[in-house]
Amino acid sequence: MRSRLLFCILLAALPFATTSAQQNLPAAVLQAYGVIASVRDVTLTGTVTDANGRQRTLRAFVKGKDKMRYETGDGADRVITILNQGVGWTITVSATRVMSEHVAAQRPIFLPFLDLLGEVVNPSLQVRNVAINRLDLHLPDPAQQRHLKGYPLDQDVTYEIDPATLLVLRATTTVPTEGHQGIRTPTTIEFADYRTVGLIRVPFRFTRWTGIAGGISQSVVVWQTVTLNQNLPDTLFHPQ
Question: Where do runs of H (alpha helix) occur along the chain?
Fold first, then answer.
């Protein structure tokens, strides 16, 4: 903790962030989350409440940074969303729909250490606008391979950081719309109730806002249980 505080004090004292400080801060923030290398998969259970107060059960399964499964609701109301290395499906009791490729290219942003922070060793990751409580990261679309109508899927995230703990308090990013065409929807997530699970720190509550003024949707997720390393099978991330 003392070394983290010293790092933040030194960074704040600089009139302009140095290249060294820019490169060190993402690694320091990631380190604050614990021994990330110990995490093979994460299983989370809890509830999600929308802006109208409707509460539903939520189960999430994450394997690595590009395999996710979300189960929202129960019985006939259950909706399953699967994301697997850039391919995605939405499954209800009546149909299975294949997602557009650019929509399926998502990360588990609700676990900051598996979001862009987890790319600290990626030479393509660009660090921008470092400050004592802010970190901007940019990752270009690799060779612009995933795109629609010529619009690359670059990834940008702005993290607001607690200078004392170096844990992320808020993440702001944009996601492509269904039609894409270069239009992206702003998304902001606020993290709270950090707890230690195994060797890592996990936010047990987050609030998510998606959209622009006049059309913003809000949801609140509260996890009751978070379990690590259940050896989730790959079959879980394919439609049955």
Answer: 2-13, 19-32, 101-104
